[in-house]
Prior knowledge:
By secondary structure, this protein is mainly beta.
Amino acid sequence: MDGNYVNAATAASENLTFSSGDHFVLRSDFKKKLSSGGPGRDSVRLQSNKQYSTSVTMTSTGNNCDSAATNNAGCGVKFSDSRSYGPSLNSNGGGWFAMERTSSFIKVWFWSRSATNVPSDVKNGATSVNTDNWGTPSAYFPSTSCPIGSKFGPHHIIINYYVNNNPSAFTNAYFDFQWLKIYQ
Length: 184
């Protein structure tokens, strides 16, 4: 059973999306009982109108991978900072995720709100950023055996949330964004 992505009016009426102050919340339905033959759980999918080939994307709310070693099956990333997800992320007040994509590499960073090494341009949501000052990324995918410029086309920013089984366990699971910034 797949998720049932709903329109903006339905998402608002079911409280799947809402804003409060300077926060935007995105969640999945966690109340309805579903039948196995039904359309799936009501969820929200946000997609940018614009596509990006090179950019730095940051949201206010690892290991390296060798695709040749995994027979080009893809690369999972596990952040070494346990504050990057779940109850620990929530209890520390969230954090910042950033991704930089160029024709030469893709890099991903995470900083917890309680971290002392958060670059000032990240913490303050500056109008411009310098990723050279951000330290070692949690994930780094160089364009060595996989030429990013020719293997990856322009991408949309997509944010979605979907829960299939045991939805009541996800009552307090949701995305809460203070901001999302795109630098080109």
